[in-house]
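Note to self: the last two entries modelled the partners one at a time, which told us nothing about the interface. This time every component goes in together.
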Amino acid sequence: MSSTASAPLSASPRRASTGALTRVVRSPLLRFVGRRLLVAIPVLWGVTFLTFVVINHLPGNAAQQLLGVNATPQEVHQLAVKLGVDKPLLSQYGTWLSHLVQGDLGHSLASGQSVTSILGTDLPITFELIAYAFLISLGLAIPIALVAARRPNGIFDRTSMVFSMAGLSIANYILALILVYFFAVKLNWLPALGWVPPNKGLATNIKYLTLPAISVALSLMCFYTRQLRADLVQQLRTEDYVTTARAKGVGEWRVIRHHALRNSAFGLITAVALNLGTLLGVTVIIEQIFGLPGIGHELLSAINSRDLPVVEGAVFVFALIVVLANLLADLLYAALDPRVKYGSTN
Amino acid sequence: MVGSTGESPLSRPRAGRSPAWMSRRRCGASLIAVCACVAVTACGSSSKPATSSAATSSAATSSASGTGTSSASGTGHAGGTLTVLESAGFAGDWPTGLDPATNTNGAADQSQMDAIYAEPFELQPGGKLAPDLATGYKFSNGGKTVTVTFRKGLKFSDGTPLNAQAVAFNWNRDLKSPCTCKPTIMVKAITAADDSTVKVDMLVPDGAFINQLQDSNFSWIASPTALKKMGEQQFKLKPVGAGPFTVVSDTLSNQLVLKKNPTYWDTGKPLLDGLTFKTTAGDETALEAMQSGQAQAYEGMNTPKLVNSFKDKFTITAQPSTSPYDIQLNTAIPPFNNKDARLAIYYATDTALLNQKLFGNIYPDTQSFTAQAGLFYNPTVPGYPGYDLNKAKAMVKQIGGLNVNFFTITQPATQNFMVALQQMWKQAGINASIHFYSLASLIQQFQGKWQAALQTAGAWDPAGGVGVAFRFNSHSPFSGVHDPKLDDLLNQGQGATDPATRKSFYDKAAEYIAQNAYGPFLFPVATWNVAAHGVTGPGLTSAIPSVAVNPQVLWEDVSAS
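The predicted structure of the combined assembly is written out below.
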């Protein structure tokens, strides 16, 4: 009796939980994320394979680079065998890939350190640099664009356009040298070289990262300013909801900040996500100029020494970050606009 | 052969350092590629006995043995710290760590290595070789055996003894390493003869052995105990030696923080409390960092135009180079298997004009693989085919024209050099196509059918690492000459223990190269060391010859006021 009575009672929560699970699994958002992550697999494979091919086709191999100019072909061959870089490309790649699947990114051919530990040490520095650069660029771009869009072709808009064009025209490494000259050499406000970890003083850490971050951020800021300003102006001129808001007596600033900005943010989010890949490339140069021990610096050194595991590890992580950033951008679209439905064809 | 009784130059007293004391080169360009989404160095009051400078003649130029009790002395201030900048791509790169056996970039990283390990012997201003960790050496067995005596009571910074056993352990370990940073010495056996004497038996006589230490990893002795305790992987990241400084932190190819070694053998040294090496992108960024006060010294500035711009702001010291440029010709294949074609290159090359136009005549011309700051200097070689445009034209006409594939390393200075040579040769009817390669690609060129290359040939001692044999010996993969007679002359130049004999062989070799037109020599170019006012030190603010590329800095004597 008790057994028969208990059966429906225990089945009911199970069915409920199964139903909830089914609902979650069938959630358009989750299915969208799942599809995007599945698509990321061939992307990551393609990027790592391409990098493998490119590095292997550069003149010289790790053995040659490690042994230096005095090495005889025999010595180079012996070390190549020891390092495993004498094997066919596909074999090397297959080995690397199989280790990757097991969560092992291998060891640096040059230093012998695990790639994971190298990335663990270097990536936070680069992430901090990039985050700081985004903070500066977006923190300035958004208010400038808002003010510029309020009076298109006005004095502020024109001035910001000239400034933006100048900023977009100057290469990061030139800007870095100019900034160092003024802020480190002439004014002696900020350091020209080096890095201090946050645990030795956050203020000092930020001080050391300011010039590198500005070097990265300026062109970004100019780009974002122009893009957001253009989007805002278009929204303000063509969209019905703007006209409606104005007709309801909503103030111009409120229209811009609360209505137009939200709708214009799509383009900005897309640009930020797409810029991330380029930005990781820029850090290679900026970290070298400012002597930052980030992953860009490590990547350059690894390329020069043909340290394939480090290059592959860094490139893999870079690619993963770009993929995830783009996914996050897509998700933000829905957060900004409830009309965006994932998994819907219309 | 002079015994180790005080008669040899190293045993003689040397002068205290004069105020003159108060007063390198990266190769390679950085390559930027890949990214994810796309397929981017005074003088301190020294405990070392003051000695007479007249007696500090070079080991190689005076005697086949030597002893001594000191290295350097000075009058600098004790205390303070110093940040030294090193160029990325050369001295600023130590991707494989700082273990002598595996640091393939050892010659470039000699400042970091010397600061951590010190050296058995060290080069001093004026090119004098003086004992540091060692006290002397002696050749025997016709130059096939050398015994090196080390100071008694030396200790590594971990407290363990630096004795003959430790040295023998290191040298044997270096030789077993796949690293070509090991010396090019034909060793039969290395053993500890007693607690302070290391005996090296060689297969062939090698009178250059002591000098060859300077540009090899034999110069740096690692603590065997620390090595065993830490393991190679950890040791290379935080090495333990018996030098003036110990490692505080090491971020590969970025920053090396060192502090004074309280157990350093020379009481009162080093003068500095701390020494930090930082990697910088290049000359401009280095000088900006120095102007901002973030660094007090920069080794190896190689942009001549910056010297005048910054000479009032910093102490800029030209470091004497020992490695002249030469135009390597591959005599194994056409066109330079024809002596007339080689002569055409000699006759068409106006070395004096190049020196004047490109470098303002600051470097002395040389007709051999030796340079003013190096050993066995021989600037004028009998029978050297000098510049003669008419003869060049006649030679080119005689051989029916001359087209040359000509390459060098990618570097701003060499690029101007190559273009100037191309234009100069054109006047003689020589058509040269010029190519620039990164170091890795450059090395590969020598494995193919290369014709001509702008290179450097020579070292402080011609028998050193990238010395004359590197470019002219049949057995070198980077040689365009395969002549047993020249090999023999070079081998005898290295093998003899008597400096005068060595010089005579090298003079003959230079003459032989000229007679056979194996490749014209130009002049040695040098780098500059930059120091903030108040910073002084031998090699940093006074000249010490470059061993191979960079001069040594005697970090234990460097002071920052």
